[in-house]
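Here is a typical sample entry:
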Amino acid sequence: MKKIMVLMLMLVLSVVVTACSNDESAAVEAKLSAKEMTDQMVKEVEQPSQIELAPEEVKGLYNIDPEKLEDYSIRIPMMNVKTNEIAILKVKDAKDVADVELGVKERAESVKKQFEHYLPDQYENAKNYKLVTKGNYVLLVISDKADELVKVFEGFFDQK
């Protein structure tokens, strides 16, 4: 009888534990499109003038195949004397998130290298970039207000 009770208890516990666990990457979904998110971020946290990266430039600057992206918005500095950049990339397939992160890291390193011997304040921005992955979303922020921008980005997702 004790064995049956122990087995029943183990079965119930396994069902409860399985039901309570969650796959964070599958459950994460933003309330807005990538463009709407970047619009809101620059509205809440002032940034120097930026322009939207053209689709044909994504591969060249980020070394990312745009076909791997479901949605994205990339804002780069309007003038080459600033490093401020915001990229929100929603990856189609979770298996490609690591590749997209690698492309984003390469972009950040490229910006850093570009300003290494140029403008010290902008080099500091580039050195202190933020890379955040939330489910299938990858965020790159290069800014002196990067922490504030990341906080706004985090607010776009349902907190469970």
Q: What stands out?
A: The helical segments are 2-20, 24-27, 34-44, 55-62, 97-115, 120-127, 146-154. The radius of gyration is 20 Å.
